[in-house]
Amino acid sequence: MSEGGPAPLQVLVGADIGGTSSKVAVGLAGGPVLSYATGPGGNIRSSPGSVRANLAQTLRAALADARVLEAGLGSAGSAGPIGVHEPGAGDGAAGAALGAAAGIEVSGLIGMAGAGTGAAPVPEALEAARGAWSDVGLPGEPRLRGDLAIAYAAAAQVPDGLLLLSGTGAVAARVRVPDARPGGDPWAGLEVTARCDGMGWILGDGGSAVWIGLAGLRAAAAHLDGRGPSTALTGAVLDWAGVADGVEARQGLIVAVHSMAASQYGGVAPLVANVAAAGDEVAGTIIEEAVAALVGTAQMVADPSPAEIVLAGSLLTTAGPVRDGVRAALATMFPAAPLRTAEVPVVGALRLAAAEAGWPVGGPADLAAGVRAVAQ
User: Fold this and answer.
1) Residue 49: pLDDT above 80?
2) What CATH number matches the domain at 158-342, 3.65.10.10, 3.40.50.720, 2.40.50.90, 3.30.420.40?
């Protein structure tokens, strides 16, 4: 670009890579969100298939969105417009135009489950992220963060606070910028400086959907076996597990549960919540214990007076007794800390991609609205 020419077009690419699904959003610095795509998961420890290929698939889908073309990111000579992936074209066709076009700059940040929580990502995760970026032809290299940092940035107003997440798993994290750059963006360098739990369903994840689901399954099994009290969970669990009439209930439940992946146990959590709401004592106790576990996890890493608390994960972002109980407990424990909800975590990746480049970007509410608009 010649001196005095137009300012470069600043393109943001943000990714939220979880164990079961991936989300990628593309936007303009200080401007609109252009596209959003979902794809298979990319946790290097638990996701099936190739993490690199799964991430590349989702990146390619986001870049191929027609709205990216309409924003004027096309016409890069022989490379063709950004996002066009013609049948038979090389894997790099989707992003090749960005690398070839003059006057376009790209800043990308990938938040990946299993990538680690500090400034030095897990090497396998970094290799997969960089490989996928290169495979779709995007210029440069993406920055990589853990999924907790982007979840916090998806809702917080200040770069220093507490994140509590409960979905398939459960974890709390203290998030801040340990080495702020003088004169730089205050969000640049955001990372997790302390965490509690997130150890998986075998070792922890107290208060998660899987934890609640397992408690519900065990309560139903104890009722069937005569070891525990009667509970309305039993009928709900047998229906959920597809135990047919005429089959011995205990054996049917054993067979059904042992054929499932651990993540599927989380499907019992809504049953526990519904039965608890109807007044079942056993289910109510499970919900109370889940709330206590989550609040205790948060206490382990929280500052005495956190500036802000962000709630993330399906159990804490959708209406229900776990969310209500956790919010009430945290509001009592930390009355001065605003409680916010990270409903669209990929927004955090866009915010941090802009921060690392020193580019302008909208607030979390505006970005979330933009993602919802293009996701329709």
Assistant:
1) no
2) 3.30.420.40
Task: Report the percent of the chain where pLDDT is more than 90.
Answer: 51
Nearest to 156 by CA among 181, 184, 176, 178: 176
117, 122, 364 from 173: Cα distances, Å: 9, 18, 19
Closest to 355 measured CA to CA, from 192, 195, 181: 181
128 CB contacts (<8 Å, ≥6 apart)?
Answer: 42, 44, 50, 51, 52, 55
Torsion of CA 176, 179, 183, 186, to 10 degrees: -10
CA gap 110, 186 in Å, rounded: 19
Tell me the pTM: 0.84
Nearest to 328 by CA among 345, 349, 346, 311: 311
Amino acid at the residue 347: V
Per-residue pLDDT of 250-271, as tens digits, reads 888 999 999 888 888 999 999 9
Q: What are phi and psi of 95, to 5 degrees?
A: -120, 5
